[in-house]
Design brief:
Blueprint: E1 5-12, E2 15-23, E3 30-31, E4 35-37, E5 42-46, E6 51-60, E7 74-82, E8 89-92, E9 115-123, E10 142-150, E11 157-161, H1 164-171, H2 189-203
Parallel strand pairs: 6-10
Antiparallel strand pairs: 1-6, 2-5, 2-7, 2-8, 3-4, 4-5, 7-9, 7-11, 9-10
Length: about 200
């Protein structure tokens, strides 16, 4: 296994898809106000900014790591399976995989069909407004650390939930549809689609 590798992901509609992982337990629609799980096990991370950059780091480990550092405000764990042999990556929920920033050559490949445990750490979401738009090359407020290691399936757990954003999303979890990606009360869809397209155009 290599050391940590990083990516700047562009969030869309307060969400980022975590690939190539699929949750093996879909009973919880929203986990700790931090992760949405759809009916097919797709995993979406909640962000503080509606659109803009998110600073992400990834670690593929051989065994369970030490507990999360105090700097992380929200931490959840869940069991997953790798849907394909690919490195971990976060992409905007409306993006094609090819549009995402590609991980560097140092990124570890997951083993297709293998069971893993993933620990997702988030901080900085409260620094973004509920409808915050940050330019693609702006300074991220949101920071994410994703750690995975081989593990037999087990129940999801919420280790830490201290941000206001996590509490809000947890309280409003019933507004999330079964898809985990399309939510109610998120503003005008036409306006949001236009913003997303403008951001994609600006990044070209």
């Amino acid at each position: 296994m290599t050391d940590m590798y990083k990516q700047v992901a562009q969030t869309e509609n307060w969400r980022l898809d975590l690939l190539p992982l699929v949750a093996t337990d879909t009973s919880d629609t929203v986990l700790g106000g931090t992760v949405s799980i759809d009916d097919e096990g797709g995993i979406a991370l909640h962000t503080g900014a509606m659109y803009g950059p998110v600073d992400a780091a990834f670690e593929v480990l051989g065994s369970v790591p030490d507990g999360p550092a105090q700097e992380w405000e929200d931490v959840v764990e869940l069991s997953v399976r790798a849907a394909e042999a690919a490195p971990l990556i976060l992409i905007g929920i409306f993006s094609d995989g090819g549009e995402a920033d590609e991980p560097g050559t140092d990124a570890d490949m997951l083993e297709s069909g293998r069971d893993y445990r993933v620990r997702i750490h988030v901080r900085g979401r409260d620094k973004s407004g509920s409808d915050e738009l940050i330019e693609p090359d702006g300074t991220p407020n949101d920071h994410v650390l994703v750690q995975v290691w081989p593990s037999e399936p087990n129940k999801p757990t919420v280790t830490r939930m201290s941000s206001a954003k996590a509490g809000e999303d947890e309280r409003n979890s019933e507004t999330f549809s079964g898809s985990g990606y399309v939510t109610l009360g998120m503003g005008d869809p036409d306006r949001e689609d236009l913003i997303a397209q403008n951001l994609r155009d600006a990044g070209e």
